[in-house]
């Protein structure tokens, strides 16, 4: 794909984002839903998108960035194709989720919050996923993996390496 | 309709206040000073820090700064529980604060330090644990931010967003990792920061300070090959004394000149002289614009915070800005030409230091276009606070100094110049001269009360002969923005506008002695310091710029006439539209 087309796609998304902003214009607390819309469109809210939001909504970039960094649901950089979320809730933690997270970090060469250079995996630690019966548990996108051990990690990751 | 009154008791003392009054203010009425930290009257009233908690029988202690007084309320401000809660709050703040008080620029003028003492904190490490570590942002030529000292009170954020409508710093991240920062980790110099320093004036601790140039000035003074002259802005004399324990509003002009001479400056000149010159140039420019169909309204350009704001946020008004340089830049250009010739010192050996109430002046002096003689007009700008530190470190007994005059040639000034330091002052000074130049008559009453005072936007119509001159005065860039928007919408129309970047004008500029939140509640420094300048004006033998003998002399001997070719070369400038974010910002 040429760079030109990627650029066209980006411009297209910005136009869609402008529509979202228009719908929310004048509403109290509109910044949150606008940021959510942006994240859905772009997969994250990078600097140029935040500047666009600031300009269109007549707020400062500082305010946009402040909200985007306050809520963990917003990502500033693109996330990987597969987002791995390791549960750090009480039950999972007691059952050894830290060791699972450490093993994932070791195999992928990532720290929590980082994305691999090939854009494939994002590793993150998360609060309780509500699947305490399966502790320790992690999700990879929509897939739930339970009763994990560090030893099981390379095998699980291998099934995603293919795709 | 009369205001509804509320009756309550505070520590058993009955007090009556208008509805809507907070417990904090009601308490002050009966002499009870509830401690505060995040509170800054009319700027930051958010009840965040919990230092001002009181007990009124509710389930938990409440923050007095945001607690409205209600009928029958029985408030206790001094119970063991209240005292312990306040102390614990301060101890928790101290647990993640860089406590290097000995080398801190705000030592002895720090609200956190004062509270720690007052509330009886016995150990600054009561709660020890993880501390956040932040790099110091010193990329701006005006302002240094040190988040290791930041207590997250948000007073600077409120000043930047609210008072100034700039909004380049705000809270980022959350919980333990919360910090006051610019977006995307930009340094202040990458943002639209206008350098006004109102964040510094708002900061209760040492997290914000001016970029130090005093050490540079010390080096100049120690270099015998240099001829270093100094000039002082009008507002400095109305506040410098506070740094030496003199009451707010004490005019220390004579002691200041004496102290500067003792520091070793070759000549002590007065920016007030250049303020008179500014009036000559600016009034002539205004008359020219009005007679020749030039761009109106003309807007003053002596406040560099305002000029930065205009260049960044309202570049469509750049043609309205007076082309006059600010007074200290005019002075610098003349020192390196007119004065250099008179004393026979080459311009390259002369250094000009400006003592300013302002942090944006540091940025202004750095502008490459401000070099009328081929050398920078001004080589260093120090704030009133930096000068006070220099005087202290030189061991000068400031309070007991004799009064000394400024040096001649560029040291004479009028009452019109000294009021430049207060909002409305430039307008009033310009009106005194414009009236007499346009009508050829002597102005009877020199006081234009309509443009005085601390109201954000002031308007007046002044009859000058047949002409009804519509003028406006704005102080604080949020007010300036509001005024410009009204003009753009076609709701307002003026001939001449004075804008000062800081609320109150230069007397409360970002480089002035810092007044604590508690002291601000007792006395408004915008009014008390301005009063010192208006008194100085009233006491002056000459109160109109065009009657200053040295001004007459410089036009006769050197500049020929206002707005002459030479004036344009040395005393006028141009402006540049600036982006919201700078190249190189990530």
Walk me through the structure.
The complex is a heterodimer of chains A (about 160) and B (about 575). Chain A has about 160 residues and is of the alpha+beta class. In chain A, helix 1 runs antiparallel to helix 2 (about 30-40), helix 2 (about 30-40) packs antiparallel against helix 3 and helix 3 (about 45-55) packs across helix 4. In chain A, a hairpin with a 2-residue loop joins strand 3 (about 140) and strand 4. The two termini of chain A are about 20 Å apart. Chain A is about 50% helix and about 10% strand. The radius of gyration of chain A is 18 Å and the shape is elongated. A four-stranded mixed β-sheet of chain A has the order 2-1-3-4, with helices on one face. The longest helix of chain A has 22 residues, at about 5-25. Chain B starts with a strand and ends in a 15-residue tail after the last helix. Chain B is about 35% helix and about 15% strand. Chain B has two domains: about 5-95, Ubiquitin-like (UB roll) (Roll); about 215-570, Rossmann fold (3-Layer(aba) Sandwich), CATH 3.40.50.1780. With about 575 residues, chain B is of the alpha/beta class. Classes of the chains: A alpha+beta (about 160), B alpha/beta (about 575). The interface of A and B includes residues 65 and 66 of A.
Task: Pick out its properties.
heterodimer, A: about 160 residues, alpha+beta, Glutaredoxin, four-stranded mixed β-sheet, 7 helices, 4 strands, about 10% strand, B: alpha/beta, Ubiquitin-like (UB roll), Rossmann fold
SSE order and pairing:
The complex is a heterodimer of chains A (163) and B (586).
Chain A: H1 3-24, H2 31-42, H3 47-57, H4 61-70, E1 82-87, H5 90-94, H6 97-108, E2 121-126, E3 138-140, E4 143-145, H7 153-162
Chain B: E1 5-10, E2 13-18, H1 23-29, E3 53-54, E4 62-63, E5 74-75, H2 80-95, H3 111-118, E6 143-145, H4 155-163, E7 170-172, E8 179-181, H5 198-202, E9 208-210, H6 214-222, E10 227-232, H7 253-263, E11 267-270, H8 271-291, E12 298-299, H9 304-313, H10 327-343, E13 350-356, H11 360-366, E14 380-383, H12 384-393, H13 415-418, H14 425-439, E15 457-464, E16 467-475, H15 477-488, E17 496-500, H16 517-522, H17 525-539, H18 549-559, H19 565-571
Parallel strand pairs in B: 1-5, 10-11, 10-13, 12-17, 13-14, 16-17
Antiparallel strand pairs in B: 1-2, 3-4, 6-9, 7-8, 15-16
